[in-house]
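Deviations from the work plan: none for this task. Representative record:
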Amino acid sequence: MKEIKTIVVNRSAYADNDEEAELLRAYLKDHGTFLVNLMSSPGAGKTTTLTALINLLKKDYRIGVMEADIDSDVDALSIAKNTGVKSIQIHTSGMCHLDAGMTKSGLDSINISDLDLVFLENVGNLVCPAEFDTGASMDMMILSIPEGDDKPLKYPLVFEKCDLVLINKIDAIDYFDFDMEKCKKTILMRNPNATIIEISAKTGKNINEVVNYFHNKLNSWRAN
Amino acid sequence: MKEIKTIVVNRSAYADNDEEAELLRAYLKDHGTFLVNLMSSPGAGKTTTLTALINLLKKDYRIGVMEADIDSDVDALSIAKNTGVKSIQIHTSGMCHLDAGMTKSGLDSINISDLDLVFLENVGNLVCPAEFDTGASMDMMILSIPEGDDKPLKYPLVFEKCDLVLINKIDAIDYFDFDMEKCKKTILMRNPNATIIEISAKTGKNINEVVNYFHNKLNSWRAN
């Protein structure tokens, strides 16, 4: 198994996170590195989804992963073992989210000079990560079936912010009272431009659709 | 359906939350009102569990519920409709947790003079709520099977802090890779004094054990 690099980051000294996030987005564009900020509740399947996705994307892109967590290293180890791509662990010093300064520290540590695509797995939390622009090129989130179809109503900001919403664990849909149409309608009411894809990271269902989404997204990002 | 009172709270002006929390605990003891702070991830089953529990406890105690949420009123409406007990909605003004001052505002609004037992449903989040003492008489949490058995490793503080940990959705355990013994071992490593009860709020399984836990807890609290 690869050795995992762990860095500890603290809240940025910059007062204006939004300004710093815009600078980071421009820096990433200059370097040709597309950064994806991935958010969800704890246990929605971020690491499993990233593993399935990266294994299909890695033949076309040089990929890196930054796993943000309060305390443990289990996700970065799992990603490194199961995908082989470069991955680091970011410890947030107890913080419940990442801001642009913390994200930049992570990027400096992973070294983006040889990377086309970097996934940032944010802290598992539907509230705080949505309030801070990390400077990523795009935001995505995962909602999982067992969490319930009312989450877009209760945690509106994260759904408003994300270009891509994956609805995961659809293999378990018969087990839970989850109204897919109602859920999608609420998401689109919050965010009419959201792309919503139903997936099962466990069985691999529709992961190819997510792969196509990223091909299109990177092509259009590079062209602009 | 009852009309739901909604209050909006802001971060307390008091610098020292811990001090304010201790004062609140003493105030509750003077009034003979036991306050339970309930934490979990979004979608772990806080409202469903509270509903099942309150319907078994309400013959013995005068119960109130404070539902904290960033934006919606759906939980307070659901509790009022399905249990008939007094319930209010607390809007946190975007905050990801409650502190002792915000909790006191809620208690003033619900009026505890005729209440023996109040449940505070904190914002769905495993990170921030654990960092702030609300002043409650006890802390409890719900972990649900679909979230995974590694959560005590990844969100240690909330597990360290809670007297009672309910493991919910055990009706769905065959559907997920969840190692119950490993999970319990990790929780007890973090918090050797935790009481852990496996439940299904959906089917009602073991809710009577939780009822017994509260009878014992209130008896010993009143005796001290």
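The helical segments of chain A are 17-31, 46-57, 74-83, 100-110, 151-154, 156-161, 180-190, 207-223.
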